[in-house]
Structures are given as structure tokens and as C-alpha cells.
Amino acid sequence: MLIWGASFAFTKRALAEVSPAALVLARCGLGSLFMLALARPPALFRGLKPKEWLQLLAISLSGVVGQQMIQAFALRHTSANHAGWILASTPIAVALAMALFFGERMGLRSWSGFGLGGLGVLLVTASRQLVAGTGLIPTGRGDVLVLVSCCNWALYVVMMDRWLKSRSQREVTVMSMVAGFAVMTGLGAASGQWRDLLQVSPQGWACLGYLGLLSSGLGYLFWNAGVEEIGPSASAVFLYLEPLAALAAGRLMLGEGIAATSVLGGALILVGVYRVNAGRRLPAAPEEAA
């Protein structure tokens, strides 16, 4: 979560040199290379049926290509710490999706968490961001896109939970990253935006390296390994670290100020996430079940 939280500042810095499409192409390419170095490429896609290929493509378009593209466009119009606060509400979006579309029962405590989280998001989006050398800037358009990415990630989580259960989550993660790279290669070739990568400065490549190798590569693998080891209920606690890492990275790398309204909104989001998770029955890890 620390890796992912800091990635917003690296993304915003990289976007000063490349387009969102070129950034996602680099992220997917470097992430795929890193993951394939730790996996067994010949066995990954073996035995997939036509229906499973479509499911894998949907997972990749949502959780890899779509998520990274939405966030890249969002960070053109908002700050790193705003993105971190709003994305902290993702567990609320996941829980709401499970309640609305899969009949998961929610108690009064969970519904109060939805209300608090929603109020917190409104406070964050209503506040303006102080950026060094720029002053106060409106962030509403970017904040809305970040909120869209929360809903998109909720869709990705549901698909990962429901599809391709015959394979480990790590395998599906690697396959979806490779599929995302294939999609972005086609889009980059068609649009010509891959040429942005030919003129990137060393600092820009350092940011792209962080996003590809650490955020898209190591971050996904660490998260999946953690969930498999300690279970989703214990893993959810670490979600609270992401906005704090985003706030710190935005301050140190980009000179972003800290608005009291956004901090208050962020605090309400975290309280809402806590109440939603505390009111749900999450599956236990094998060790917990034993």
C-alpha cells in the first residue's frame, strides 16, 4: 500500500513528459517483464477456453488498462493527495457493488459507513489544492475521475473473485498484466503516442521505472501474496496506509499543500471504510479458518 500510495506523485511527475497512453504502455510493459521473470511464461495461458479468454480480457481491460488510464487522466487535473484520499473509499465501492448486484446483506453499521464515506468524498472534492508555484487550483474534474476509478476497481475485484477460479490469483494477475501490455501496444502503435517515450528525461524514466517495476509489478504481487497469507480481513487494515503515503509523496515530490477540508474529508472516508468492513463478514484465510 505504501508503494501504491506514493505512485500518484510519480504518475503526476511523469505526466509532465508523456501522454497518459504512453505512461500506461510503459507501466504495463515494465510490469509484465518483471512478473514474467518470476513466473513460468509457457504455462501461463495453457488450457484457457474461449470463454476464459474473454473473462481474462475483461479483467485486464478493467483492472490494468482501464484503471491506469483513468487514474492517469485524473492526475492531470487533481493532486496526488486528493487521489489518495478518494481511492481510500474503494472498499466502500466494492461492498456497495456486492450488496446491490450479488445480494450481500449489509447491516445498519455498514450503511452508516457508506454515508460517512460519501460525505468524506464530497468534502475532498469540494476543497481546492495548494500546489507549489501555482497557488490554489480546482480539482473537481480530476476528483470525479478518481471516483470513477474506485467504481472500476470494484468491478475488477468482483471479476477476480468470480472468474478463473481454477487458477491462482497470482497467475491471473500476471496474465492480466501481459494482456494489458498487448492491448496498450496495439493502441500505442495505432495512435503513435509510443513516440513520447523516446524523449523522456532520466528523471522521467525513473518515475516510469517506479510505476512499472514497483507499482505495476511488485505492488500487485506483494498485495496478492499478503491476501493469500493473512486473509482479506486482516489485509483490509493496511488500506489506511495508502492515502498517508500519497499525502507524504505529494508533499515531498510536488510541493502539494495540505488543505484542512481534504484532511477532514479523508478522515471521514477512513471512518466510513472501517464501519463498512466491520459490518461485513469477510472470508478468512486458511490459517484463520483452521
Distance between the termini: 27 Å
The order of strands across the largest sheet is 1-2
Give, in order, the helices and strands.
HHHHHHHEEHHHHHH
Oligomeric state as shown: single chain
Largest sheet: 2 strands, antiparallel
* Strand count: 2
- Helix count equals 13
Q: How much β-strand is present in the residues?
A: under 5%
Looking at the structure, what is the overall shape?
A: globular
List the uncertain runs: 282-290
Q: How many domain units?
A: 1
Portion of residues in helices?
A: over 70%
Radius of gyration, in Å, reads 19 Å
Output mean pLDDT.
79
How does this model look, in words?
This protein is mainly alpha-helical and 290 residues long. The chain has one domain (2-281). Helix content is 75%, strand content 2%. A two-stranded antiparallel ribbon has the order 1-2. The longest helix is centred in the C-terminal third of the chain and has 34 residues, at 202-235.
Brief rundown of the structure:
The protein is mainly alpha-helical. It has helices at residues 2-14, 20-38, 41-44, 50-74, 80-87, 90-102, 108-126, 140-162, 169-191, 202-235, 241-254, 260-278, 286-289; strands spanning 129-131, 135-137.
